[in-house]
């Protein structure tokens, strides 16, 4: 996208859950061994640690969802100073938060908005798209194809897409861009992105769910514009199976980089966790540096996504 001036400072809002998301969970310390295996497509069984007979088993103290997210933020900011981060990680089986920080703050979606473009295109066709339309939607998501997004954005009425999806899903703080030509300037919150994934997995018809998640699961390493998409979730949570929608955008005043998706820590836990990390990084931040920063933060989830 052509660099443009950022509009306004992020505003904090209060979220009223449309689903059953709750903001508390007791978790083991981040230093615990990882339960994730070594393959994106197949996750191995957890290893049972050996213990000395008669030894006292020490149960780690639980750590708060905010503390986990603060450690993630610290890791990201150490790699990319001056970055603002929003985090929401939710166990979809219970609706409880695993990590949360600035979850109600607005950030630019960049290409994450393609989830809403895809859902709106499918819904407007009564969830029964022609094969060529389904193929275009899959390509838009897996390769993050901007040309297809431009076409669907225009065909769907630009900002009207956001208005319809906000009402359909019940998003509390997602707003259409001021410049109707710049879909990447849509504003959303980590919590609203979790709600989008919740809608995809629980409410959208199975055919739409399979199309979208299939594309996200098979996200290309190299996007249509040549960007390496495997930052954040894909590079950090090695061994887990995932379905991701990444976002990146370079503005005159800031760099946007987002990693979002559903994560399966084991084969019997399909898409158990919704993981959303949105970031506003300093203008001109090198893409490799920006991506590595998100990866370093998401890596800290290894100990708690199990």
Automatic annotation (TrEMBL):
One of its GO terms (biological process) is response to antibiotic. Signal peptide: none annotated. GO terms for molecular function: beta-lactamase activity. PANTHER family: BETA-LACTAMASE, BETA-LACTAMASE-TYPE TRANSPEPTIDASE FOLD CONTAINING PROTEIN. This is Serine hydrolase. It comes from Nocardia seriolae.
């Amino acid at each position: 996208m052509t660099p443009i001036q950022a509009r306004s400072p992020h505003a904090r809002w209060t979220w009223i859950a449309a689903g059953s998301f709750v903001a508390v969970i007791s978790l083991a310390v981040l230093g615990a061994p990882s339960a994730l295996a070594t393959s994106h497509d197949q996750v191995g069984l957890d290893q049972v640690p050996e213990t000395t007979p008669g030894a006292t088993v020490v149960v780690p103290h639980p750590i708060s969802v905010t503390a986990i997210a603060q450690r993630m933020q610290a890791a990201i900011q150490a790699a990319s100073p001056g970055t603002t981060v929003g985090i929401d990680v939710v166990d979809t089986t219970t609706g409880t938060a695993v990590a949360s920080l600035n979850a109600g703050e607005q950030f630019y979606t960049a290409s994450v908005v393609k989830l809403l473009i895809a859902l709106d295109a499918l819904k407007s066709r009564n969830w029964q798209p022609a094969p060529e339309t389904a193929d275009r939607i899959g390509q838009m998501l897996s390769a993050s194809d901007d040309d297809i997004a431009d076409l669907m954005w225009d065909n769907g009425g630009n900002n009207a897409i956001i208005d319809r999806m906000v009402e359909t899903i019940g998003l509390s703080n997602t707003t259409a861009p001021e410049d109707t030509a710049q879909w990447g300037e849509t504003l959303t919150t980590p919590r609203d992105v979790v709600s989008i994934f919740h809608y995809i997995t629980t409410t959208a018809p199975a055919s739409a769910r399979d199309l979208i998640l299939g594309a996200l699961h098979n996200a290309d390493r190299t996007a249509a514009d040549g960007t390496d998409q495997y930052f954040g979730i894909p590079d950090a949570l090695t061994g887990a199976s995932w379905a991701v929608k990444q976002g990146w955008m370079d503005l005159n005043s800031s760099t946007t980089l987002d990693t979002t998706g559903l994560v399966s820590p084991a084969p019997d836990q399909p898409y158990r966790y919704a993981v959303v990390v949105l970031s506003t990084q300093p203008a001109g931040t090198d893409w490799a540096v920006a991506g590595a920063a998100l990866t370093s933060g998401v890596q800290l989830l290894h100990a708690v996504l199990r």
